[in-house]
Every structure is written in C-alpha cells, then in structure tokens.
Amino acid sequence: MSDDALLGGLEGEAAEVRRRLIAELRAAGHDEAALVDAAARGRLALLPAERAIRGNATLSTADMVRETGVDPDLLERVMQAAGVAIPRRDEAAWTTRDVGLARLVCGLLDAGIDPAAIVNLGRTLGDLGARLGAAAIVDLGSGLAREGDDELELAHRLARASEQTGQHLVDALGSVLRDRGIEQLLAIELDAGAIAEGRLAGATVVTVAFADVVGFTRLGEELGAERLEGVASQLATLGSAVVAGTTVRIVKTIGDALLLLGQHPREVVDVVLALQDAAEADPEFPRLRCGVATGDAVPRSGDWFGPAINRASRVCSTARPDSVVVDDVTRDLLEDEDGLDWRPLGRLRLKGIGRVALHRVRHAAADDA
Question: Is there a contact between 295 and 306 (Cβ–Cβ < 8 Å)?
Fold first, then answer.
C-alpha cells in the first residue's frame, strides 16, 4: 500500500514525520491492516506503546495448561471475570509473564480455595487492573505530552514509558498488595464460633469516616473537568498525608469523597480533624465536610460493606461545611478522651436509618485541653 494512503492529508514536515513513523512500525512487524486502522482512528503514534505493553506473545492457553497443569475451564472463568478477552486455546496470545496467572489459579486451588472464590478474585483483579490501566495510560500519558511534539517524538516517548511500566509495575504492585493484604488480615478478629462455622472474614467493629467536597457538582460546572479532577486528586493527596504513620487506611476514593476506616475511634477522629485542618489551610481548596460512625462492617475484595459504612455516609450528609460530625456510638466510645471539644446537634433523621444523636467534634483549644 502506498504511504500516501496513510498520511491522512498531511503535508510538508508533518507528512515526512508520518512516513518515518510508518517505516518504523512496518519494521517492528505491524501489518498493513493494523496501520490502516490506526491511521483512520488517529492511533499511529500509540502503536509502539501498545506493542511494548502487550509484549511478545508466544504462548497459547494450551501451552499454559501443559506447563502448569491448570484447569483450562477455571482459568478462562477467572480471565472472563477479570474482563480479559478469551482467545482460542491454540492461539499464541500470552507472554511468559502471563503464566503467573495460571500458576496462581493452580496454587490457590491446591491450597483448598473454593473455585468460586478464585473467580471472585479474578473479578477484583479486573477492577484493580482497570483503575491501574487508567492511571498508567491516561494520567502518566498526559504527563508525557509536550507542547511542540511531532508524532514521532510522542510515539517514542510513550513507548519508552510503556516499557518501563511493563518491566516494573508488576513488582511495584506486589509491594502494595503485600502491605494492603496485611492491613486486611489485621482487621479480622477470629473467635471460636467463626472458626467452627468456617468463617474467616466476618463482621468487624470499625470506625468509618467519609470526607466529602462540598458542592462538587456545582464546582464541576464552574471549574471544568480538568480542574475538577485536580480537586479530587488533591483530596486523595491530603488524605494520604494525614493517614501516614497511623493505622487508619483510605479504603477508596469516590470522586469527590474519601472513605477512611480504622480500628481505633480516637485515631480516626484525629485523622479526619487533621484532614479538615489541611483543607482549610489551603485557600484554593474547596470546603470539606466529614462524618464518622462506628459499627459492624465486612471486608470483601478490597472494599468494606455494612451498616457502619452506610451510617458514616449518612452522618456526613448532615455535616455543615468545615465540620466533622460523629454518631452517638463513636461519641460514647470517646467519652473519657481528652483534647476534644463536643457540641451536641440533637437527634437527626438519617435516611434509611432513623433518628440518631449526632455531635460535632473539634480539637479542644490549648487553654481548654
């Protein structure tokens, strides 16, 4: 096929840059159909990065089965749950690194894990992979674009970053998973009944906090999508800073909100007050409101569910800007704690819960502590 058909109307220097890119892509093994499709969709500069991420696929599902002894039906169920396209079993679609998933499935099955739980893990890996993929491609990719780039310069820079991501992201993820796994393990409290009933991760009493940006929807209309994303990112950064050195963890970010959780009510309250102080100290950051509740919650697939989560969310919705509000259970647990200033708000109706006694909390002034 003539290069002219792939130029998309480009002329002069831009056309020459496109020709050099096409020559490199052909030398790397991209076929004409892939080039035509990428040119039509404005993706030619992304093909080197795509190749770096995909790696050298030399193994089929059948090869992985022979090498690991994995049940191919179970492996494909896990892949499907993770959102991975299922190739023909004789198609060379996998790299040597992908054998790790087959070994994981085998190891978990040999350890006595129920296949349904393994499939559920695949679903969690898919959710995690989607978020990591978005961060690696969109967030990091946005940081790689340079004003004045030509198509070839951008293609080379994206490919180099993708190679680094492919080489090191899995190892870095292993470190994060180790620490987060320990956090989940420490949140479990076993008793004889749970062991006899075959339950490991049952309901646990925890203190939960929601921190919510006030008027986030209105801000979106005023600031635009990019600035709004910056607000959400800054909230996550502030949250990470205030939980550092504590046993409180950020469970997840939900656009304009953080969900935090801990085993110790005072520590959670101190962290949320510190978050509120950090937000107020930045004149460019929108106002926050926070709600705290204590009760039962259950860890599942890296998330938490249960009455305490719902209660904290409802408590947060009652809070005024720049305030931290806690439920009666948390207030009672902190009855004898020093250094806190309380103001009762009365019994307010929480949607789906009923009337609950709520209290606003602040750090006590130095002369009152």
Answer: yes
215 and 338 assigned to the same domain? yes
Q: Residues 6 or more apart from 262 whose CB is under 8 A from it?
A: 206, 207, 246, 247, 248, 249, 268, 271
pTM of the predicted protein model: 0.58
Among 186, 215, 243, the domain-final residue is 186
Q: Do 99 and 232 share a domain, yes or no? A: no
SS3 category, 359: strand
CATH of the domain at 226: 3.30.70.1230
44 contact partners, CB below 8 Å, separation of at least 6: 6, 18, 21, 22, 25, 35, 38, 151, 155
pLDDT in tens, the chain (369 residues): 566 778 878 888 888 888 898 888 888 888 888 888 888 888 888 888 888 777 788 999 999 999 999 999 999 999 988 888 899 999 999 988 889 899 999 999 999 988 988 988 888 888 777 777 666 666 666 667 777 788 888 888 888 887 777 667 666 766 766 776 666 666 556 566 655 655 555 567 899 999 988 876 565 555 555 566 777 788 888 999 999 889 898 888 887 789 999 989 999 999 999 999 999 998 888 889 999 999 988 877 678 888 999 999 999 999 999 999 999 999 999 988 889 999 999 999 998 898 999 999 999 876 554
Beta pairing, strands 303-305 & 249-254:
unpaired
For residue 261, give the 3-state DSSP assignment. Answer: strand
How many other CB atoms sit within 10 Å of the CB of residue 162?
Answer: 24
- 74/92 Cα distance (integer angstroms): 19
Q: 3-class SS at 88?
A: coil
